[in-house]
Amino acid sequence: MKVAVVGAGAMGSLFGALLAEAGNEVWLNDVWPEHVQTINRNGLEIERAGRVRKVGVHAVTEGREIGKAELVIVFVKSNQTKAAAEIAGPLAGNRGMVLTLQNGMGNADIISEVVEPSLVLAGTTSHGATLLGPGSIRHAGVGPTTIGVWNRTEEGFERACRIADLFNEAGIECEAVQDVRIPVWNKLLINVGINAITALTGIRNGEILDLGTTKNLSRSAVEEAMNVAQARGINVREDMVDHVFAVARATALNRSSMGQDVDNRRRTEISAINGFIVREAESLGLETPVNQTLTGLIETLESHY
After folding, report:
1. Is 187 a catalytic residue?
2. Stretch 218-246: mean pLDDT
């Protein structure tokens, strides 16, 4: 299958490389010229468990150089989704599928404004990756991926199953589901409970569990988000708080993506995570003071980089 990846950071590069190793024609599209040039010259270097391998894959800075693709995967930051959708739309054309595995909420809706909604897939992944430098990433963690069509149709589910098969053949454990909103919300609530707190305090994921006051802060943020999900009719996990703590424990040494953004003085995805919960709550007449505070603090921090 011909696959285009819009946003070839750590995760986009990882998925592109795994699909390329399985025999697919993969094109990475990224705005970082040095990254693209290094990949084209030397291949993409992947570090995993102390071993390094190189994968040959096409890389371009201009999406139009790719031509039409059967699958376009969007892996940019949520604040760049609109621009990525403008690239993905022409690449997919009238028949190609567009899949978002981004953090946060709202990405699939933005893409659906440009791409035929029945061709838009969304999902979550537990794989982890870190960008080490131009043409070099670390595959930091392995876990399941879940995908599904954003606008539920039987034909859309069949499309999702085809992409899940493609991923499984590439060694990416993947399941297609009928209602992808549930896993997307579950992943959102994990980010709600971890990302902003670690970004503001400079701690790693596992250090959320060190102090009762920090655990309670995370708990309150997650419980507020659970109330919003319930009001929207989304059946998130009943044990979500414990699940968030389990994820923090399993990724104890990791610095969250939002933490890395703050460390590098980059714009974060707060608007699509805690900020999304705040906006949804306001539209429902609910109050989310903890998420509102976390959102305000991150936005303040960003404005004073």
Report:
1. yes
2. 97
CATH no. for 182-303: 1.10.1040.10
- Spot the catalytic one: 2, 77, 82, 187: 187
Kindly state which CATH superfamily the domain 2-178 is placed in: NAD(P)-binding Rossmann-like Domain (3.40.50.720)
Q: To which residue do tokens 């306001």 refer? A: 282
Query: What is the arithmetic mean of pLDDT over 109-133?
Result: 94
**If phi over 0 gives left and psi between -120 and 50 gives alpha, with beta otherwise, what is residue 270?**
alpha
Tell me the residue type at 120: V
Calculate the alpha carbon distances from 91 to 20, 79, 111, 149, 151 in Å.
18, 20, 13, 18, 20
pTM tops 0.90: yes
The proportion of the chain whose per-residue pLDDT surpasses 90, expressed as a percent, equals 93
Q: Would you kindly state where each structural domain of the chain is located, as residue ranges?
A: 2-178, 182-303
Query: Percentage of residues in the chain with pLDDT exceeding 70?
Result: 100
